[in-house]
Amino acid sequence: MFWASYLLAALAIILAWPAPIALSRAEWPARAPFTAMVLWQSIALAGGLSMIGAMLVWGLEPLGDNLVEASAAFLGILLDDGSAESLGVIHVFAISAAILLFGHLVFTLALTFVRIHRQRRRHRDMLTLLSSPAAGQPATLVIKHPAPVAYCLPGGARSVTVMSDGLMDLLSQAELDAVLTHESAHLHQRHHLLLWAFAAWRSALPWLPTSRLAQQAVSELIEMLADDEALRHVDEPTLVRAIAIVGAGAPPSTSDALDDALAGESGIPLTAAVTGGTADVVSTVPRLRRLLTPLPPLSRLQQGLALSSAGLLLVVPPLLLVAPELLG
Amino acid sequence: MATLGDLERTVMDLLWTTPEAMTANELRDAIAEAPSGEVGRELAVTTVLTVLSRLEKKGLVTRERDSRPHRYMSVTSREDHTAELMHEVLVTAPDREAVLARFIGSVSDAEAQTLRKLLGGS
């Protein structure tokens, strides 16, 4: 059982630094956003599990040959005042750290959920007062604002897409359709759940490069997935124009924007999770580039490789935890 | 049957468009006179007061304390509320105008040309 904890620790380290950095620099995710999304999710899940598992297995090692037996012995010490002689301070420390980390992750997930929902409810309340239903479009609201804005507000049966009248003035009907299809793809594909999980992951472990890289990548990938959905209804030039106009926040004819200085990096705060995906500076550039210079989708072999690594990531840590003898 | 949300909306619309503060009675009369609102019916003053106290709790409405009956007014304009709401959405992109610039700065000449052509054609 000892070696299992070292393998888990090695896996945790790989998944915390080199793997996400490599994936965030790769160019293929733009060619297969769905596969990349699956891989990011398995990296985050397997990373968290390995981190907790490594400490737990290492700490429980003196108590038994496998996790089930050792956990039972540990509970025996806690509840029935069994002998704790075999357990050193360092082991107790590792076990406590594992339990604390697990609690921290679950608690942050719950806390983020509550915060997002509170913010969404307030936002929806204000929308009731400030917007009016769009003509001929179910579950779509129009708000009076000059900036070209479109976003979706998830909420089960009460999910809505919101657009500004500024957007309607700037876009043609076909471009507007592109934007609305894009937003409803966010809702149908439940992107807000992904954003929630990765926002929580980031606020739980802000010092971990993975959590920031993963959140950025996921925000970018959901925009690409929604773009692909929109492309099934409108042609590419229409979508590109719509993205550029919404992304630029200004009519395209003002070429001043083209000559402006480059923008600084901007983070992706909770807001994206609240609204369930919205175009922003960070994601607009790769989205446009991907549409203007389309790359061929990944080959079956490459897709298969990426998906099987995702699958392995989900299978190996639990196996190492529960039944290490199966692997060795 | 109008929902509370519809009532709140009707009351806010009136308070936003009326320059001076209004009493619950004046509000009720104004709602009854409204040509084709979603509410468009006689309301009890107590209903209007309930809606007003909900709106007050949400920080949208305030009342003049020293007058009897109380006179209600909106805290800020509809435009301010909209701007605030849109800020929540747009906060991810503090400098949206720079997106195109950034794009042009980061892609090949051919891609930039294509984009310029697409945008010019709209």
TrEMBL record, chain A:
Q: Where is the Peptidase M48 domain?
A: 118-197
InterPro entries documented for this protein: Beta-lactam_resp_regulator, Peptidase_M48
Cofactors, names only? Zn(2+)
Q: Which UniProt keywords apply?
A: Hydrolase, Membrane, Metal-binding, Metalloprotease, Protease, Transmembrane, Transmembrane helix, Zinc
The record's comment on cofactor binding reads: Binds 1 zinc ion per subunit.
One Pfam family recorded for the sequence = Peptidase_M48
Q: Where are the transmembrane segments?
A: 36-60, 90-114
Q: Which GO terms describe its molecular function?
A: metal ion binding; metalloendopeptidase activity
User: Could you tell me the Gene Ontology terms of the biological process aspect for this record?
Assistant: proteolysis
Q: Which family does it belong to?
A: Belongs to the peptidase M48 family.
What name does this protein carry? Peptidase M48
Report the source organism: Arthrobacter pityocampae
Automatic annotation (TrEMBL), chain B:
**GO MF terms held by the record:** DNA binding
GO annotation terms (biological process): negative regulation of DNA-templated transcription
Gene3D superfamilies with a match to the protein in the record: 6.10.140.850, Winged helix-like DNA-binding domain superfamily/Winged helix DNA-binding domain (1.10.10.10)
Q: Which UniProt keywords apply?
A: DNA-binding, Transcription, Transcription regulation
**Name of the featured protein:** Transcriptional regulator
Q: Which Pfam families does the protein's record reference?
A: Penicillinase_R
InterPro entries in UniProt:
BlaI_family (IPR005650), WH-like_DNA-bd_sf (IPR036388), WH_DNA-bd_sf (IPR036390)
Family indicated by similarity: Belongs to the BlaI transcriptional regulatory family.
